[in-house]
Amino acid sequence: MAAWKVLQCSCKDLQLLITLSGGQCFRWHKNEDEWTGVFANRIWTLKQTDGEILYEVQHGQRSKLNSACTNDDTKKKRKVGRKKNESGDGKFSEEDEQLLCNYFRLNQSLDDLYDQWSKSDPNFKEVATKFYGVRMLQQEPVENIFSFICSSNNNISRISSMVEKLCTLYGPIIGTKNGHTYHAFPEIDALAEASVEQDLRKAGFGYRAKFIQKSAAMIQKLGGKSWLQSLQEKSYKEAKAALMELPGIGAKVADCICLMSLNHLEAIPVDTHVWQISCRYLPHLKSYKSVTEKVYNEIGDYFRNLYGPYAGWAHTVLFCADLKMFQEKEAKTGTKRKAGNTKEDKKAKNKLI
Fold it and tell me: Start and end of every HhH-GPD domain (predicted)?
């Protein structure tokens, strides 16, 4: 087995546990102290120490870097805190490291953001002492869109299962690791085929099957990945409105996509859980029985005014801090306790998102 590659990065600057299992993405799995997941047509295995991220990479067929890893905000090389790898695999090694830095947005100083948010909000300042290192992933838009179409009235465990089914049914094989075969996420064209809806219904996707196929066909017609790239260049409101034209995408899912893969970091997805958090800041919201469009917009505007252009990232920290699976000492110790094995973990994983 190849030697672990090393990326200097403290737990304060990136905490894998909260970042990878807080509901942003659905293809990472933890086994003992290792995380295995897929992005950029590669199988990644990560381990964390107090001051380093150790990683192994298994490549699929070589392809162009996806837009999630090459937009203007993230394509800069990360220099601070970087340790040169000595594995001797040249360009691949350098490219892998840059992909990893971009995926976790390591070019963005988390200390600066936390300081800014703490000055604006005493509650955030208190939360930040335990829930440090929470990063907003920069994901590939196609995977992000269809993963969150699967999220409708669903829990994290079942969403993860559906996403893996999509990959197994329609994604090319990347390789095998520890006896498990890993697939890349499907291309838009594969999901746009007319037969996809019926196949996915048989696979247990229910009404989401229609939304997946219809949205893929619509994105294909609009221009595919080039259209998705154009959404990053539009304003947040324009990008959100465009996404909501796709079948199966309402305001919350559109905001998830804007925040997690289109670089509109002011987007704040609002669901019942976020509404409950918001009631601590806006007590009058308790008088509403549901999250109406008016309430939804009020919550988003309030936190955008409070936290600024990275409001969605700040609110993700609050969201994670409110999940039972991350409370007590787990956020502080990171890997002392296996995620998914306690009663609190199981309840959180079965929570609707």
Answer: 150-316
